[in-house]
Design a protein that fits this description.
alpha+beta; Arc Repressor Mutant, subunit A; 3 domains; 11 helices; 17% strand; elongated; Transpos_ISL3; Transposase_DDE; ISL3 family transposase
Length: 278
């Protein structure tokens, strides 16, 4: 048996291990000698596995670790999974939680929950179905523990709202700011596109709204009204503020949507709840 040893100076080292086999005279079964260098039926030594875990903690990729330790990427993955100790549950449920979903294997949407303050992962579930999430929290945390949760940050998914108060009776539901800005930005773009369809493609207004749509997503103070720039799509020199004013002065509906978008982003950035409610 060739046992892989820890890499030294970038070189690959192997130990040729000859195991003696024994035969029982009573039952006529055979068995081999064991060693503490590696586990049974494995060729990676314990020192090599320790080296793999040390490199993994430094944030190196599996492919790079495999090249440095002279083993396959699949061996690196198996070693990491073997040494990891999955947590059944966190010791103490955080007071502020974040719910979200992400695309995992085979394009399946999975559920993730983390601490809103420390960003430490609380759990990751294989799917985002309500029964799965409810069963996880109810089977692992007592009602008293769940009552200590003060807030849950979610996106605009109405599915989460249907069972949050069941799991966390005293928690407040908070909509993530990112999704609010995203929703307002989509409304602004939809209004802009609807106006574009009615304009002449050679007009200056069309070129501004088509080529320089990012100007309408900028903060008002970032338009720099005193700075004259060359707008490539329009092929004219003007300030960014003038380009925005040209559109908002001509299309009142777009001006209203644009101002609402600016108010929402400003209120969220300044944490001004009164401006957001107005």
């Amino acid at each position: 048996t060739h046992v892989r040893l820890a890499s030294l100076n970038g070189r690959r080292y192997e130990l040729e291990l000859r195991k003696q086999r024994y035969k029982c005279k009573s039952c006529h079964t055979t068995f081999g000698a064991i060693t503490n260098l590696t586990k049974e039926n494995q060729t990676l030594s314990s020192n090599l596995k320790n080296q793999i875990m040390l490199l993994a903690r430094k944030g190196l990729s599996g492919q790079l670790i495999a090249e440095m330790c002279h083993c396959s990427p699949s061996s690196v993955r198996r070693t990491i999974l073997e040494r990891m100790e999955p947590h059944y549950r966190v010791a103490k449920l955080p007071k502020h939680l974040c719910f979200d979903e992400f695309r995992s294997t085979k394009s399946v949407m999975s559920f993730i929950c983390c601490d809103a303050e420390t960003h430490q992962i609380v759990t990751k579930l294989q799917d985002r179905l309500s029964p799965t999430i409810i069963d996880y929290f109810e089977s692992r945390y007592s009602k008293a523990e769940r009552e200590c949760v003060q807030s849950v940050v979610i996106d605009l998914n109405a599915q989460y709202q249907s069972f949050i108060y069941r799991l966390f009776p005293n928690a407040s539901i908070i909509i993530d700011r990112f999704h609010l800005v995203q929703l307002a930005g989509r409304a602004l773009d939809n209004c802009r596109i609807s106006i574009l369809k009615q304009l002449d493609k050679q007009s200056r207004e069309y070129k501004i709204m088509k080529s320089h749509w990012k100007l309408f997503h900028k903060k008002a103070e970032d338009l720099h009204p005193e700075e004259v720039v060359f707008l490539r799509g329009v092929k004219q020199y003007m300030t960014r503020q003038n380009a925005v004013d040209l559109i908002t002065s001509k299309f009142s509906k777009f001006a209203e949507v644009y101002q609402t978008y600016q108010d929402i982003t400003k209120a969220l950035n300044e944490r001004n709840s009164e401006l957001l409610e107005s």
